[in-house]
Design goal:
- By secondary structure, the protein is of the alpha+beta class.
- Among the domains are: about 180 residues, Immunoglobulin-like, CATH 2.60.40; about 120 residues, Neutral Protease Domain 2 (Neutral Protease, domain 2, Orthogonal Bundle); about 110 residues, Immunoglobulin-like, CATH 2.60.40.
- Helix content is about 25%, strand content about 30%.
- The structure holds zinc ion (ZN).
């Protein structure tokens, strides 16, 4: 009897939670006052964080990231770098972190932390601050954390730090104690090993007090341009500085990170994106080497944003800053840090533009959609890679029908053939090799969308991606959210594809096994060689040059895409994935047939295309 009552109670408790159904996400509001000591590369900060718990759970603990603690000898990041068989040669300091001197390391030290005025018990585990709350935060509740902290900016080792390779003084990313994300799969307080960032959305008010010689650029909008002289000098505003230091006041709304950079020689040029797009600010060091930044990069940037908005939906803020800094190209909300000089030399306009297209697109897939990249790296870098070729095709007039296919599919196929591939669902920190991560996230993630375009049809795909931005922007979608949206848009089942593509290293390979002559007809037999099933488009070309199309559905998709061609299409019976072969009859004598080809568009990432074509001798 007791057991019976208990079972009923458990049943009620697990089904009656008011928030159990429907979407929720946590919310943060930061206010930070930073006093920066450029002489010692250190700063102190006061942070007020209002945390809103929109989850159905009562929180008894919270976690902050202290990313700078990774930049030390013997850190997890150091050992992770040593453990990878193919370390990235672009960042030599990563493998030399054991030699960092005391004044070259990074750290974030929390001096005091209170919750609604009560002192809190904290424990630092590497880059994670574990905090036991004084008062649990109930579902729907909010609380205020007040923190005082001190930090030292490390040498530029990877992404963040001081004295970049091309001479930028401060590239300030991952620089403040930052609340970790809590979502329906729990806390994401992953230790930092130089890979992904994930955090709740919120509003930031950041006041940075620094020597008046510095020009600052970053996420958000400067609130006191008249005081700091921010781009207003040309308009005749005279700025007089009352002391040696100045306070830059930034505000950013609805972002999940805040990055900034500072240099004494930054100059700024701006351009307005047409058709209501963002105002673009470009910050570069005032020297001969960066002349392109001030002459030709601005019109390119406006073109890029105009093209992305047209193809992938509206940008979410009123401004975007392109900032010389960092150690490659890296995306942050409302900003990117890009280097001007690689170790191989100064970058051309084409190289800068290529990087900018990629980083600007991250404003969509990392800035506004912001999937958890530790788990779903393919949804950010991959979608960005796919979209990048479509934008470059447009702004560079390549005139390709399938711009996102060529390079990406080939790159993926070559990698898949090595046998070194790891499943794309691998946690981003845990890939065995850097190449494995890169190929899975960037290449295979991009090819995932090529395959989807082939499976559901390109028009549905394009419309679906705009809807994805509108429906899931600022909501941290998961793979299932994306797949469900595309299922609804196409009226097809699609999980069968992602199950294979993301969770396995199975591959696609179809071939034409035989083409046999009957009296008045032709019998075609196809083989399924790879494990991944795909619906097939098969174009038949007659000797008179005319063409027609067959389409073979696969059952589990529960339908077919619209005919994407002008050719007459015949839909054949389903080819079930268990069956290694499939035959169909063409109502023509073999002597009339010139060519039969599986997937003439070559969008399908078929590992061996040599068996896709039958040609009459
Ligand atoms: Zn990227």
């Amino acid at each position: 009897m007791k057991f019976f009552i208990l079972s009923i109670m458990v049943f009620l408790m697990t089904t009656s939670t008011p928030f159990a159904q429907g979407y929720w996400q946590q919310h943060v509001d930061y206010k930070m006052d930073i006093d920066f000591d450029a002489k010692n590369h250190q700063f102190s900060g006061k942070q007020t964080l209002v945390y809103s718990n929109n989850s159905p759970d009562t929180l008894k603990k919270v976690y902050y990231h202290l990313y700078y603690n990774a930049f030390q000898p013997n850190s997890m990041m150091y050992w992770k770098t040593l453990s990878v068989p193919d370390p990235d040669p672009r960042f030599p300091l990563m493998g030399q972190m054991d030699k960092l001197k005391k004044d070259e390391i990074g750290y974030q030290k929390v001096a005091t932390l209170t919750q609604d005025g009560k002192d809190l018990e904290c424990h630092v585990s590497y880059t994670t601050l574990e905090v036991k709350l004084a008062d649990p935060i109930p579902p729907g509740g909010s609380t205020t954390f007040e923190m005082e902290f001190n930090a030292q900016v490390p040498l530029q080792i990877r992404r963040t730090g001081r004295d970049s390779f091309d001479g930028v003084d401060y590239s300030m990313t991952q620089w403040f104690p930052k609340m970790a994300e809590y979502d329906e799969s729990g806390w994401h307080a992953d230790p930092y090993v130089a890979r992904e960032f994930h955090a709740p959305w919120g509003n930031y008010e950041v006041n940075i007090t620094i020597d008046k010689d510095y020009v600052l650029a970053g996420t958000g909008i400067v609130q006191n341009p008249n005081e700091v002289g921010y781009g207003y000098e040309d308009e005749g505003v005279n700025v007089s500085y009352p002391s040696d230091k100045l306070t830059w006041k930034f505000k950013a709304e609805n972002v999940h990170d805040f990055a900034w950079a500072a240099d004494t020689e930054y100059v700024q040029n701006t351009i307005q994106t047409p058709n209501g797009g963002p105002l673009i600010r470009i910050f570069s060091i005032d020297e001969e080497e960066t002349i392109l930044w001030r002459t030709e990069l601005a019109p390119q940037a406006a073109k890029i944003f105009e093209s992305i908005e047209k193809n992938f939906g509206k940008y979410g803020w009123s401004q975007y800053s392109i900032i010389q800094g960092g150690d490659g190209g890296m995306e942050y909300p409302m900003a990117t840090l890009i280097i001007n000089r690689k170790r191989t030399g100064v970058r051309s306009l084409s190289s800068l533009t290529g990087t900018l297209v990629h980083e600007a697109l991250h404003s969509w897939y990392q800035g506004m959609l912001a999937t958890n990249e530790s788990y779903f790296a393919w949804m950010d870098e991959g979608f960005t890679t796919y979209a990048e070729d479509i934008i470059l095709n447009e702004i560079r007039d390549w005139g390709q029908d399938w711009p996102a296919v060529g390079g990406s599919n080939e790159h993926y196929i070559n990698w898949a053939k090595t046998g070194l591939e790891e499943p794309a669902c691998t946690h981003a920190d845990h890939f065995i090799t850097n190449s494995g991560y890169g190929r899975s996230a960037y290449v295979k993630g991009g090819v995932a969308l090529n395959q989807l375009s082939y499976i559901i049809g390109d028009q549905t795909m394009r419309a679906g991606l705009i809807e994805y931005r509108n429906e899931w922007g600022f909501k941290h979608p998961t793979p299932n959210d994306f797949i469900r949206l595309m299922e609804k848009k196409s009226d097809l089942e699609l999980h069968w594809f992602f199950d294979e593509w993301i969770h396995t290293t199975n591959t696609i390979d179809y071939g034409i096994k035989s083409v046999e002559k009957n009296r008045k007809t032709t019998e075609v037999t196809l083989s399924k060689i790879g494990r991944i099933p795909m619906p097939l488009d098969i174009v038949v070309t007659k000797k008179d040059g005319s063409q027609f199309l067959y389409y073979i559905p696969i059952g589990v998709m529960r339908g077919e895409k619209p005919n994407e061609t002008d050719l007459e299409r015949t839909i054949l019976p389903d080819w079930y994935w268990t069956h290694p072969e499939y035959s169909f009859t063409i109502d023509l004598p073999k002597s009339d047939i010139k060519k039969i080809e599986i997937d003439e568009t070559q969008r399908m990432a078929d590992l061996d295309r040599t068996n896709n074509v039958f040609s009459a001798e």
